[in-house]
Amino acid sequence: MLTGMTIVFLGGDARQIEVIRKCAELDANVRIVGFDQLEEPPAAGVSSEKLTTELLASADVLVLPVVASDDKGSVPVQFSSEPIILHEEHFASLPKDVLIYTGMAKDFIRRLTAKYKLELMELLERDDVAIYNSIPTAEGALMMAIQNTDITIHGSTCVVLGLGRTGFTLARNLQALGASVKAGVRRKDHFARAAEMGWKPFMTTDLADQASDIDLIFNTIPTMIVTAQIIAKMPRQAVIIDLASSPGGTDFRYAEKRGVKALLAPGLPGIVAPKTAGIIMANCICQSILEQKIRGDAE
């Protein structure tokens, strides 16, 4: 149980609703900022607040959105018309033993948490969270592929760039639907794993040699990899679905110029399956808080 703990939530989307509910169920004192457009509180006993240094000073745990903020401290909000902007004074007001959770943080958050020696946990860096999260990501990518092509996945030739947690799940799902899967990798162990799975592996440096006969490219690599040179060799009816974090790894300007459909699709779990994605985050955050609490009690 989280009895006696004050957990402050700043902004976020529908995924945060599930985390708020879970914390409230575990008897935490939950205070939320940036949810004033909800018709009713996410759970009984949850209080809606304004962002103040006094509020943050009361926090045992601070939960930020999956993408914590932009590079200027603006926190994404879906359920409020009022912006949430974090400043240095907010970090200075946080207790030294506060736990801060987010999915991923940019330099603004990392710099200020480091300056004030605050513990920041980026959940998408955890293998278990990223693997669970890859399931709705892969399903969302398949949905986009079906919506934006006039062919079936079965029998198509698909390239998956990157065999990390998302790339592996996606390639396996494409294979299960009957696609011919080519896997672009940067590591020899990933090359071997792709071959063992029955995919057609190639090194990403050889992507140009694979581009002429593909129907779909799914990119998970967050650096420029689907360049103008690659797009120039692709069939015009091919579709690029870029799952990497913004700005992605595709030359979208040239794709538009050539008439190749290219779609940037970061954050799919929160779009296609916010409840499932939220439950994944909720379970991870609550388990981590309980572990930290047990560790603190032991000390």
Secondary-structure blueprint of this entry?
Blueprint (H helix, E strand, L loop, with lengths): L5 E5 L3 H12 L3 E5 L13 E2 L4 H5 L3 E3 L10 E2 L8 E2 L2 H6 L5 E4 L4 H9 L3 E4 L4 H21 L9 E5 L3 H12 L3 E6 L2 H9 L3 E4 L3 H4 L5 E4 L8 H6 L5 E4 L9 H7 L2 E4 L3 H5 L1 H25 L1
Helix pairs in contact: 1-12, 5-6, 5-12
Q: Output the helix-strand order.
A: EHEEHEEEHEHEHEHEHEHEHEHEHH
Distance between the termini: 19 Å
- Oligomer state equals single chain
Percent helix? 40-55%
What composes the largest sheet? 6 strands, parallel
**How many whole angstroms does the radius of gyration measure?**
21 Å
Mean pLDDT level: 94
Largest beta sheet: strand ordering:
3-2-1-4-7-8
Number of DSSP E strands: 14
> What percent strand?
15-25%
Treating each run of at least 4 consecutive H or I residues as one helix, how many helices? 12
Briefly note the structural class of the backbone.
alpha/beta
Q: Tell me, what's the shape? A: elongated
List low-pLDDT spans. Answer: none
